[in-house]
Amino acid sequence: MDHPAATASTSPNSLPSPTSQCNARSSGLACDDDGVPEPGTTAVVIVLPDAAPLLDAAWRIDPALVRRGVPAHVSLLYPFVPESALTDQDEKGVRSLAASFPAADLLLEEVVTESGFVAVTVPGLQTIVDAFRTQWPGLRPYKGRFKAQPAAHVTVAMGADNPTAAAHVRAAIGSLLPLHTRATAVQLVVLTEEGWQPRFTVPLGVPDGP
Fold first, then answer.
1. What number of other Cβ atoms are within 10 A of residue 36's Cβ?
2. How confident is the model at residue 210 (pLDDT cuts 50, 70, 90)?
3. Which of 11, 129, 133, 141 suits 100 as a labelling partner, its CA being 20 to 30 A distant?
């Protein structure tokens, strides 16, 4: 994704523009397989606001490494069913799975780096990530850009091809770990012309409806 010139007030958690470009290594919520945002793409995520300092630390090193507008999160399934093909059954499936897992206290403590990609693993959410992948076996996580079953993680930086930059990011976020946070809700989000928008949010561990 293109990154405008940094200013003191710029934040990696502001709303993204779906018409901006992604760099060749970009993936996750902001880009499709060709590195270009695609309105109508959906994802199921757990946002972790307490992990925002990790992205802030990487942004201070190089704003181009952080996907602006995408808050710290764990993708349970990305890409999910395209908005045009979403059914009531899909939405009920998301709500039902969310209700079947309790809210969870999480410990983030391991940094992983691979091909310019820097992330922090979130093992406490691996079970729910696996459950979503099992529920929709025809959807390849990240369209197969990573391994068949990538570990649950918070993406911190992408495009850190310069080993020095990657090392600086690792050191910066490593100084913030271990980090405690809590997963409380699942969101189904969709990319619109105005950016990523929640379609609905459902609390973890709370049965939906009467």
1. 15
2. low
3. 141
175 token code pair: 């100084």
Query: Which comes out higher in pLDDT, residue 200 or 193?
Result: 200
CA dihedral for 29, 166, 52, 15, sign (positive or negative): negative
Q: What is the pTM of this model?
A: 0.83
Average pLDDT, the chain: 83
Sheet holding 117-121, edge to edge: 111-114, 117-121, 153-157, 73-77, 42-47, 185-192, 195-203
pLDDT band per the 50, 70, 90 thresholds, residue 29:
very low
